[in-house]
Amino acid sequence: MYVLGFDIGGTKCAVISAEIDGDRVTFLGKEKIATDLSVSPTEMIFRLCALADGLTGGRKPAAIGVSCGGPLDSKHGIILSPPNLTGWDEVRIKDVLEERYKVKVNLQNDANACAVAEWKWGAGKGCRNMIFLTFGTGLGAGLILDGRLYTGTNDMAGETGHLRLEDDGPVGYGKAGSFEGFCSGGGIARLGYAAALEKIAEGKLPAYFREGMGPSDVTAKTVADAAESGDETALEVYRSCGEHLGRGLALLIDLLNPEKIVIGSIFARSRDLLWEPCKKVLEKEALPLSLGVCEVVPASLGDEIGDYAAVSTALL
Known about the structure:
Helix 5 (185-201) runs antiparallel to helix 7 and helix 6 crosses helix 7. A 5-stranded mixed sheet has the order 3-2-1-4-7, with helices on both faces. A 5-stranded mixed sheet has the order 10-9-8-13-14, sandwiched between helices. The chain is α/β, with parallel strands linked by helices and 316 residues long. It is globular. Helices cover 40% and strands 22% of the residues.
């Protein structure tokens, strides 16, 4: 089965061509382009189509998948003003691509698309009940329930980042103390910056911090590097993140009773820093019978997960 995948992001977009044969995916080509928000969404889509035409060489795809940040209307194939795509208001990308290519086009938000990819070809392969968490720039989720993708009444299922874990704390998803506030790249950076200021007031200087640094100078990676080197402040930051990850996962485990939770990006890179504090909270908070059948694992598709996500959406 020959398919095309369109991966649309706020800074860059990509078109991927692939052949799918049962459980095997063979990527045939990929073209990337910067997302130009100074032009209309239609113009940007036409640029992507030009890239796609170069990849196909005239070969007709059996289906096309589109992965894009939400909110969106997957049933009608409409992109609904994503925060990272200024001006993309009610963009009927499904209609545009189906008119051009005369094939079925499926649209899904990126977290759902990544969930399907990990479920079909990655760490969640073989599961009937699986949760995928992005744990990158933000914290979104894709839900595989009873062997199929669950998107909710209007594609808003899985917005785990909006769950409040504390009355106050780092802001994520517009809410202080949210799951995303504690468990995302930006959240770890904010925790790291606040912890550094506290240590400086005590006359101590964390390894990842220098006098005069601002909030933007601290990142999840710089804090992780310091933690890997044994810096106690950085270790405290990741310990706090891990504890809140455990609290959020306990809610999901008790509510949805999954057999596997697959976590991408930062968890996949920094599992050694996060897992022990996360596990302790899980054992305290989650129902033992539910926790006993649930495995928490890092995503396995690595840097290619976006490519897998786009083409997997073509199969929905």
